Amino acid sequence: MPATVIVGAQWGDEGKGKIVDLLASESDLVCRYQGGPNAGHTIVVGDEVYKIRAIPSGIIQGKQSAIGAGCVVDPAVLIGELDDLEARGHETAALVFVSGNAHLIMPWHVALDGARERKLGNLQIGTTRRGIGPAYADKATRIGIRVQDLLDPKILWQKIDLAVAEKNVWLERVYEIEPFDADEVYEAAAAHATRLGPYVADTSLLVDRALRHGKRVLFEGAQGTLLDLDHGTYPFVTSSSPIAAGAAVSFGIGPNRIDAVLGVSKAYVTRVGEGPFPSEIEGDAQDRVRELGGEFGTVTGRERRCGWLDLVALRYAVRLNGITSLALTKLDVLSTFAEIPVCVRYALPDGSETEEFPAHQSDFHHCRPVFETLPGWGVELDGPELPAAARDYVRFVEGALAVPVTLVGTGQARESVLTLG
Length: 421
Ligand code: IMP
Fold this sequence. Notes:
Largest sheet: 10 strands, mixed
Bound molecules: inosinic acid
Number of helices: 12
Structural class: alpha/beta
Strand order of the largest sheet: 9-7-5-2-10-1-11-14-18-19
Radius of gyration: 22 Å
């Protein structure tokens, strides 16, 4: 498909990096459409481990890689990644493109993110504290600093000077932490400008031209559907639009240019941070899934909460994204379980049951999962075919969602992905 979106169908960490890595080999251009260094993709190639947060992972295969206007860019993180890739022999100069319209994460955004979370105490969102929310807030308030501002020293200084004057009031008076010095921030930004200047591009035109020339473009979402600012489990969400439509918005192309949407879901569910989680596993089995799945955050190292597969939430993801096929990752993690519960409905506080994701937050907060238990397969998934019970598990998911599962993750290695159908 010329234009394919890869979207996380749960709360992030679905293993999108591996699927993008797989499909990138057949693509010409890989585009990251939202978020910033709150995301982290780990890609293992032979003995090399790459942890990428800003640049689309296609860069590892030498593909053109673009960061869209809907992203927020921490310049120091991006430069660190560029330096690391170059030191490991990957060319970046003619391959990495950053939208001039993307917004910069400035040092006060990171400071405010952390300070606000600390102040919220028990009510905190559990953010990655990378400055994501404050950077998007400034974008919406129209006082943000954009990547293209790096190219104009006068504008850059004006914006930094103005921002520091305002942010320091918040930092000192509301959060009682150290203020920033405008000159110091400007000097650091000016150094970033020199390094990043050559990568700044019109990424809308880049994608438009690629599609018009019949190139294959892969749009890579970060986080996941349920962390979407508009449609996710607000306020326990991120501040951008991970859903598939976000790709068109971020890259400035019409939604009718997108041909396919591949949803990526784990064979179970994980969630980091706070917020309701109906299918969260009770007791020791949760620790077992966490250990087997290595469920610790790439960016923060935090333990991920683990749950059984939630078909109600996944059905919602199919609807919100227009998912045309699914990749079910980490099926191997379930191999040692004799029985595998799957959440098929929610029981609501009024006594009714539903297969559809509740539109009202109170229903979601207070719903109880209704499980159906499927038999496990009890063997490793190391063959070219799935064992019958594992195949049935996949068929059950397909039947419930009316979407084909075309890829199944069966192990950590890059090649441990089975293509079905
Ligand atoms: P923020 O994006 O750092 O503002 O965090 C907001 C919420 O999104 C928190 O619950 C985070 O744990 C969650 N979150 C952000 N990025 C990721 C990710 O890449 N994977 C999973 N959860 C994430």
